[in-house]
TrEMBL record:
InterPro entries for this protein: Flavodoxin_fold, Flavoprotein-like_sf, FMN-dep_NADH:Q_OxRdtase_AzoR1, NADH:quinone_OxRdtase_FMN_depd
Organism annotation: Ruegeria halocynthiae
HAMAP family in the record: Azoreductase_type1 (MF_01216)
Protein name: FMN dependent NADH:quinone oxidoreductase
Gene Ontology MF, one: oxidoreductase activity, acting on NAD(P)H, quinone or similar compound as acceptor
Function: Also exhibits azoreductase activity. Catalyzes the reductive cleavage of the azo bond in aromatic azo compounds to the corresponding amines. Quinone reductase that provides resistance to thiol-specific stress caused by electrophilic quinones.
Keyword tags: Flavoprotein, FMN, NAD, Oxidoreductase
Flavodoxin-like fold domain residues: 3-190
Catalytic activity: N,N-dimethyl-1,4-phenylenediamine + anthranilate + 2 NAD(+) = 2-(4-dimethylaminophenyl)diazenylbenzoate + 2 NADH + 2 H(+); 2 a quinone + NADH + H(+) = 2 a 1,4-benzosemiquinone + NAD(+)
EC number per UniProt: 1.6.5.-, 1.7.1.17
Positions with a binding annotation for FMN: S11
Cofactor(s) this protein requires: FMN
Catalytic EC class: oxidoreductase
Length: 193
């Protein structure tokens, strides 16, 4: 049994979403002791000049306003730290990730908290975690040269230290949705808990 799952849904669709269905199935299959839920259909703010200024101010020198500006980002980082497994329902929009997922990445990729710079380059600080991407697309084949979503998600998760990344794909659903979903649902049942 997985201890704690961070369950993130990035689909703008609250109903009828293949990625929401798949990510729910993954979470149920893993039987977590605790589930932290983050629905990105409730939009996250984009980073701003004030956010950047606060982020690059040393923590012990931040004023109350800067602390407030970073409070949501701090909460999102805390959710990642608490999780053993991160399950992400990730639709492919226009060959890439939804803007809501990119906003989440911008808020959690923070030097000193989720990665650090070293002589050898950046090093992720969230090692020892597992991520499962429940991906769906209308016409983009996962892993193809036009799939910028899963390659980006794998890269950025690795950047913050999460290298154990699995993909459950319900791709090219516009061609044969029933067969595609059936294959993806079978892959969920074969996931190692």
């Amino acid at each position: 049994m997985t201890k704690t799952i961070l369950h993130i849904d990035a689909s703008a669709r609250r109903t009828g979403s293949a990625t929401r269905d798949l990510s729910d199935r993954v979470v149920r299959h893993l039987k977590a002791g605790r589930i932290i839920r983050r629905d990105l259909a409730s939009p996250l703010p984009l980073i701003t000049e004030d956010w950047i200024g606060a982020n690059f101010t040393p923590a012990d020198q931040r004023d109350v306003v800067q602390q407030d500006v970073l409070s949501l980002s701090d909460e999102l980082v805390s959710e990642l730290r608490k999780a053993d497994t991160i399950v992400i329902g990730l639709p492919i929009y226009n060959f890439s990730v939804p803007a809501a997922f990119k906003a989440w990445i911008d808020l959690v990729a923070r030097a000193g908290l989720t990665f650090a710079y070293s002589e050898e380059g950046p090093k992720g600080l969230l090692e020892g975690k597992r991520a499962i991407l429940a991906v769906a697309s209308g016409g983009t084949a996962v892993g193809s040269e036009i799939d910028f979503a899963t390659t980006y998600a794998r890269h950025v998760l690795g950047f913050i230290g999460i290298h154990d990344v699995e993909v459950i794909a319900a791709d090219r659903m516009a061609l044969d949705p029933e067969a595609t979903l059936s294959k993806a649902q079978k892959a969920v049942t074969e996931l190692a808990a």
